[in-house]
Amino acid sequence: QKWSMSPGGQHFELGIAENNLFLTLAAAGLSSSIFGSRLIPIGTIYDTFISRGLDALNYALYQDARFLLVATPSGISLGPEGGAHQSIITPLIGIGQPNLLMFEPTYADELEIILRYSFSYMQKENGSSVYIRLTTRSLLQPKRNVDIALENQILSGGYWLKKSETKSDFTIVFSGALAPEVEKAAEILQEDIPNISILMITSSDRLYKNWRFVQKERSKGKEIISRIEEIFYETISDSLIVSVIDGHSSSLSWIGGAVNRKIISLGVDEFGQSGNLIDLYKEYGIDSDAIIDACAQALLI
Length: 301
Known about the structure:
Helix content is about 40%, strand content about 15%.
């Protein structure tokens, strides 16, 4: 491709060179501290190949470079391309990497809100770089008006996609591409568990870091609660949780300990295979049947 410089921005095509990508993002992302003028670099990458450039990414963030990393496709939802291109551990990288705020939206309206927020957040003194983990799976989009309250909930890291009228005693927690499987499972379980609820996690990273911050503040005698605890105050104290993500199962399992609830966590813990999504989701235990079985298992704990 032939690209030319213009006031509208510039495009660099680096090919299969992930370390070069992160070195470039680092250089552009440090423009404010070096030259006094802010650039907003945006890097796109196959989600699983973040690991190839992880050392360069780590040093870029160590220097407080500011950039937006858009990683897609992700998970075994990539389907036919097999384990070499299907990401597993990247949600854990998003949680564990300092100076990097990770989001994993499901719907386009969530992504729009997160993008607008990210461009502002990257420029704040106490901000950081942002990583958005996306899927190429086609999903039916909800018809809804996103008000300020829902927008703040999306940016806080999670919100109720489906909430029972009374305090819920069973919650399915998920993030990313698995909305159809979760909603199908909840619909089937509704007859036996009338007050089942669905919690959408838009940023396990933000929720986790907020929880850890609150723990430290409590050790200083402050009486505050974390966002994840605030969410689960709307469930009964001994409610059960099943979590599911197209990524490593431990990505959401921490929620059980944070809110003092029993949890069964589903995810992809092995290298994926090539195949259609129905077969892959079934093979790796993240389809609607697996979610229903996990809910039944949780009731027996």
